[in-house]
């Protein structure tokens, strides 16, 4: 993370947005703002922030839809949702989809700042995912989602890139299927651990010289997988 963390606020209420911008800038954060979900996603893809602060009720693409995309394409970005007190169902859905925290309106700006700082501290303690990684005869560009093996390039899907990025970041450690579901997919009820297994099979075909006898993405029986460079 850069020395000055960047925060993206997606909020269509101009008064609330300006109050948050002023408070976060006072704390020396770099702050950008979007008033719709569509604009927010454009800004995220242009330059991914260190943290996303998003309202749920937005015109057009709502906050839950934004978060679904963020957790698929940028699983490392912490997300704090802003919700109305009566929107319990939205809060529960948000947490199940991978939100790291939520704040109910009306809220204290001090509370928001405290939660932002806590999430950024947690992120700073996480292993950093490299943009480029070399192993064996494979080179992977995780930002562009491009994999090159023996000089031949292939594209990675969003979930393939997310799965590989998580395994590389935690290389040498056993990673459970549930952990991958939570951190790559956001873990919704419609998904099962078989989803992870299918993704691993696809990755092995692109990475391994012999997918049936993998050297890099190893199966840990009864648990999940481990990446070895």
The fold-level CATH name of the largest domain is Rossmann fold
Number of helices, where a helix is a run of at least 4 consecutive DSSP H or I residues: 8
Rounded Rg: 19 Å
Q: Strand order of the main beta sheet, please? A: 2-1-3-4-5
Mean pLDDT: 87
Write down the CATH class of the largest domain: Alpha Beta
Task: Give a quick rundown of the structure.
The chain is α/β, with parallel strands linked by helices and 229 residues long. It has eight helices and twelve strands. 41% of the residues lie in helices and 23% in strands.
What would you note in describing this structure?
- The protein starts with 5 loop residues before the first strand and ends with a strand.
- It has two domains: 6-124, Rossmann fold, CATH 3.40.50.2300; 132-227, Winged helix-like DNA-binding domain superfamily/Winged helix DNA-binding domain (Arc Repressor Mutant, subunit A, Orthogonal Bundle).
- It has helices at residues 14-26, 37-46, 63-73, 88-96, 109-124, 158-169, 177-185, 193-207; strands at residues 6-10, 30-34, 51-55, 79-84, 101-105, 132-135, 138-141, 146-149, 152-155, 175-176, 217-220, 224-227.
- The protein is an alpha/beta fold and 229 residues long.
- The longest helix has 16 residues, at 109-124.
- The model has no long low-confidence stretch (mean pLDDT 87).
- The strands form three sheets. Strands 2-1-3-4-5 form a five-stranded parallel sheet, with helices on both faces. The chain has a four-stranded antiparallel sheet with strand order 6-7-8-9, with no helix packed on it. Strands 10-12-11 form a three-stranded antiparallel sheet.
- 41% of the residues lie in helices and 23% in strands.
- It is elongated and about 60 Å long.
- It is built from eight helices and twelve strands.
């Amino acid at each position: 993370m850069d020395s000055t963390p960047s925060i993206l606020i997606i909020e269509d209420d101009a008064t609330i947005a300006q109050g948050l911008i002023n408070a976060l800038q006072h704390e020396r954060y770099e702050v950008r703002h979007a008033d719709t979900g569509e604009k927010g996603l454009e800004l995220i893809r242009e330059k991914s922030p260190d943290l996303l602060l998003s309202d749920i009720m937005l015109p057009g693409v709502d906050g839950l839809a934004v978060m679904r995309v963020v957790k698929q394409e940028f699983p490392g970005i912490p997300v704090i949702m802003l919700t109305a007190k009566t929107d319990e169902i939205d809060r529960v859905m948000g947490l199940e989809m991978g939100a790291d925290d939520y704040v109910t309106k009306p809220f204290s700006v001090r509370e928001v700042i405290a939660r932002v700082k806590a999430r950024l501290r947690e992120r700073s303690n996480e292993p950093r995912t490299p943009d480029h990684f070399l192993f064996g005869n494979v080179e992977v560009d995780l930002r562009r989602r491009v994999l090159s093996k023996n000089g031949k390039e292939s594209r990675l899907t969003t979930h393939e890139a997310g799965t590989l990025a998580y395994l590389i970041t935690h290389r040498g450690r056993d990673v459970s299927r549930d952990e991958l579901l939570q951190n790559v997919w956001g873990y919704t009820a419609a998904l099962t651990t078989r989803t992870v297994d299918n993704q691993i099979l696809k990755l092995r075909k692109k990475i391994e010289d012999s997918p049936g006898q993998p050297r890099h993405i190893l199966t840990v029986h009864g648990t999940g997988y481990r990446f070895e460079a």
